[in-house]
Amino acid sequence: MTLALVDGNNFYVSCERVFNPKLEGKPVVVLSNNDGCAVARSAEVKALGVKMGEPWFKMRDLAKKHGILALSSNYALYADMSNRMMTVLRQFSPDQEVYSIDECFLGLDGFQHLDLIEYGHAMRQRVRQWVGIPVCVGIAETKTLAKLANHCAKKNHAGKEGVCDLTRMTDTERSALFSNIGIREIWGVGPRLTEQLVGRGITNVEALRNSDAKTLRREFSVVLERTIAELNGIPCMDLEEVVPNKQQIMSSRSFGQYVYDLAPLQEAVACYIAIAAEKLRSQGSVAGMVQVYVRTNPHKADAPQYQRGLTVPLTEASDDTLLLTRAALWGLKKLYRPGYAYQKAGVALLNLSAAGAPQMDLFSTAKDNSRVMAVMDRINGMWGRGTLHSAAEGVRHDWHMKREKVSPGYTTRWDQLPLVT
Amino acid sequence: MNGHQVPGCATLPGERLFAGLPQPCIPQPGIPMLATPVPAGFPSPAADFVEDRLSLDEHLIEHKEATFFVRVTGNSMTGFGIHDGDLLVVDRALHPADRSVVIAVVDGEFTVKQLCRIPTGVLLRANGNGHSDIFVGPDQELTVWGVVRWSIHSI
Question: ipTM score here?
């Protein structure tokens, strides 16, 4: 197997820069929902030592000193740009697995007659020109190695100008390269596992590659055994071109301000159900259980703390927003306690199964709302989410998340197009 | 009864939407006319000759992924038929040729101008009267953001 991992550099920041050239060369961070933490950092910001996930309030002084520009996340823009990038990359291979909003694997079996490094540069060049996003390309025999190759390309450990092809290296060259890369950079090796492996003297990729997979499997997991095989060029993971249906669908968000009363919590929960239920229908599933939870701010130790969740089973699996909302609100009423400053609520749809093969219930009284749901989805698809919604969702939404520094919908709103003089 | 219902027409939404039929009052570009079931009676003599309705998207957009819309402010390009408030269709997949109308980045701002290669560098020409032309020397960097394919002007 030969494949490439193509990954957008500082993707969210790069999206913003396409439409705001003034951000070029300046330190820029994009903040998470409610303008909380850094979720994307430009190279200039990384150089200042700002870590991923660092809260904005902690970097305020640094930001003032170095003129760091902060933006709220503009997910509508990032989604459109991601879509464009992935479609352009599909021109380079019929086999694509979109792995996340800013990265995809491309199968390159059958392309070996080409100079793959040149091919990688062609991908880079085209995405940069057509969409405006800089990307790096890592080429290797397995997914884990392709990820590593991409890391090397990004950090300039190997390859050049953003393309690294491990298949071109001899084993000695690989050993030399891998000895200089920490195991933390390996796909699937998290901070805890890193700590445990380092404790056993396995600190770099080369050391892990040469470890005895069977022994480590006994001590850790089969996943680690697979990682070791993949590092040795034995593919254990195939390209997944069709995204498997989700086993559970969650929707949760922190509020823009603390919420004390039941009514706004009910609105928020109804909104989250609406979002989750739409996803549920789009993948053609029904849910058998609805989970709802609320919590206060755990970082505010002096305030009274409360956190609770409840799972509500349904007599009949459903994809009906109205029915799921009713179940979630029933649960919410059970767990709501007055006197707390709630910071977050969330819902999860569980026990998912394919729609269309329902288990009949003898005492079923459920009304079939499937046509209403289909109409609602179509209208919301055309005129924007929330055009049609349940009354339970309310209209004022004072609890809505804060996005004070959000950029315009350059590619999705007629009234927010980029201006040219 | 829906035989020649024209998409986009005004109808009372409730009834039709909930009827579960193909949605006659939701515009769906590119759907062949008469594709909705023809009720009993004499079959349409045109049924075998249905073609896709013309789509402006198809006409104006060559590279979907690389095409962006921008809005013009100001009158620096009226000489080229580009007016204040016009909508420009910009294709980033095209290479700018000499005398292409382009979106260029000048001092961090987008500007629409005609790109002219001259012996001493590049001239970004406006209007034609020479007033707001911008000269870019060989040692200066010029970013061409995209090539303008169409200007859509409201009458």
Answer: 0.79
Contact A21 B108 (CB under 8 A): yes
pTM metric for this prediction: 0.79
Q: Is A372 on the interface with B (CB under 8 A)?
A: yes
Other beta carbons within 10 angstroms of residue B138's beta carbon come to 9
Q: Which residues of B touch A22 (CB under 8 A)?
A: 108-109
List of long-range contacts for A208-214, beta carbons under 8 Å, 24+ apart: A208/A183, A209/A178
The Cα-based distances of A36 to A52, A57, A180, A265 in angstroms read 12, 8, 34, 21
Tens digit of each residue's pLDDT (9 = 90 or more) over A65-116: 999 999 999 989 999 999 999 999 999 999 999 999 999 999 999 998 999 9
Q: Which CATH architecture has domain B62-152?
A: Ribbon (2.10)
Inter-chain contacts counted by CB atoms under 8 A, chains A and B: 71
Which of A77, A83, A420 would you mutate first to test chain B, the one with the most B CBs within 10 A? A420
**Residues of B with active-site annotation:** 76, 113
Q: Give me the residue spans of the domains in chain B.
A: 9-54, 62-152
pLDDT at B15: 41
